[in-house]
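yo

u said u wanted the structure for the complex thing, so here. seqs first:
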Amino acid sequence: MRKQLMALSAMTAAAALLLAGCATPTGTDGSGELVFDVPDVPMLEALGDAEGSVDIVAWSGFVEPAWADTFTEETGCVVNRRVAGTSDEMVQLMRTGDYDLVSASGDASLRLIVGGDVAPINRELLPNFGDEIVPGMQGQLYDTINGKVYGVPIGRGANILQYNADVVTETPTSWDIVWEADSPYAGQITAYDAPIYIADAAVYLMYHQPELGITNPYALDETQLAAAVDLLKQQNEIVAEYWADPVAQITSFLGGTTVAGTSWEILRKLTADDRMQGTLPQEGSTGWSDAWMISSESDSPNCAYLWMDYTSQADVNGAIAMNFGMAPANGAFCETSDEAAAHCEEFNALNEEYFENVWYWTTPIEQCIDGRTEVQCTSFQDWTNAWATVKG
Amino acid sequence: MTAISTSATTSPAPRPVPTSKPVSTLLYRHRWMRLVGLLSLPLTWLVGLYIVSLALLLVTAFWYIDSFTSKVIPGFTLDNFILVFSEPAYINTSLRTLGIALSVTLLSALFAIPLGIFMAKLASPWVRAVLAVAITLPLWAGYLVKILAMRITFTEEGLFNWLMAPFGISGPGFSIPTVILTLTYLWFPYMALPVYTAIRQIPVNLFDASADLGARGFTTIRTVVLPLLWPALIAGSVFTFSLSLGDYIVARFVGGANAQMIGSIIASNINLNPPVAAAFSVIPIAFVVIYLLVTRRTGALERM
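structre next:
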């Protein structure tokens, strides 16, 4: 239990920053056509001598002595870790220029790239960033912009529908039980407490109200955002509690205050309660995906590259994924042991079909990332303002 | 400090200066140096750290934000204030927060007065000591611990519902009443202690005199105790009121779906949109200033 709590506290911090992330559908919507005005930052051409240390801003659980010490032995680079609690904090820290690397979530990455805070990555210097990185985590909008690679994938996860099987006796096939006013579980619903949760409403609308024309839950024009907010206000009537803190979410389910709502696979697992089940409904869902990014002002680019390469190895990437509770980016990890295989199975690591319907967190910006040019989309600031009106 | 007070309080008449105490001598000769020595540290703290940083924050309320990178851009716009004062949800949130803070204050006062009277005038020294410990006990535990304790108490299958089930009563769950209860639990000591101290200072013979003149218990409390208690109540209420206004963690953990407070909105904007957060922070400041002005009119502040 103690170990779980420690993992949880780490998760809490990680979760908080994850929520700010953003996503794009798995390579289906022609995001390659999108061109962003990105500052021209040079990328490292060749590896030089290791500088002796590397400063990393990471989610809790991503940089641990268990694998960082081995890295130091192998390369001579001492790892200095700074744990950040939110994506916003990560962006702020990276802008100080004091850090070499960041484990950015999708909602932070676009901001970092466009702000000129991170540099493109030279994949040739990363032999371990190879074919074994799962296809769904390569070439995402949040790390590949204008044909350049900006991120080295670490792991991903979906936002699932968790339910208490004692109360919700049939496996739900739709998110409707958490959105519709006539839900049989009205008053016992939990929802994620962050502006990015608007995307979950958009995913639901995309399926049930195609006439709104939403093709990407992170590209909402004003009408579409208003529709999503209306849906969220409707949901507000049946919500028992919003959660931002993973521990609070777990106690909410275990204490019987909520019986269905948004969750992560790792949180469901942490309840250690067989009644708590999870499913990915037919509408699909939002999710998150993290990647290492290198500062444009890095003092130790060589050590940073060595770290990115080191953590892309199957066993190290797997150790991070198991420690944090997510699907690893390096698919080869799944074959390293029975335990690894079980972890991959549980988190659907190699199941691209599963993640096909998952829209990774992506920062909503004024430029419509679904490719529309005739309208202006709503920005994350708009979403933040809108979110406050949901809870009135 | 010793040097200052010594030199300041000794005989004002000029006398031969003992050369062995150059610092004292210097301070004695120069009044401004004494003042600087006395006030430089607290004033650096107050003005430098507190007021300047607050002013800087408030200035950003008039600045812009780059909607993509969230970088704050200096300038002048009233958009942030217009947003805060035009959206019904934001106005609701402000009024709700005000209501919660006033309820917490009222509830704290309601608990503190009878408890203070009992402790100061009726309880045996032993009971008084136990009660004093009981009042300050919540101060010993961490803020989050207390909130989580209330969370566990009011969860659907929690202690409250379990205790009340035989009577067919179901608790408030996570809701605004629970927020008020939790905030009262958190800030009650800040009301109880000044009230208790004030009541202790009321001479017993005033009660006797009141009784001799024919006043019953409630009349005595209303006409004798309350007026003497007023400054303490105001002092306590400034704590409970302003602390409640600024809180948002409680709303997050025991507030349920509809207990958003001003602090919640500031917290969600502080990184992403500091100008909006700054504009919002003006509201609790305004509430507290109005509150202080109102209490000043009662004359209570001068007697504090």
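Residues 2-18 of chain A form the longest helix (17 residues). The two ends of chain A are 37 Å apart (CA to CA).
cya
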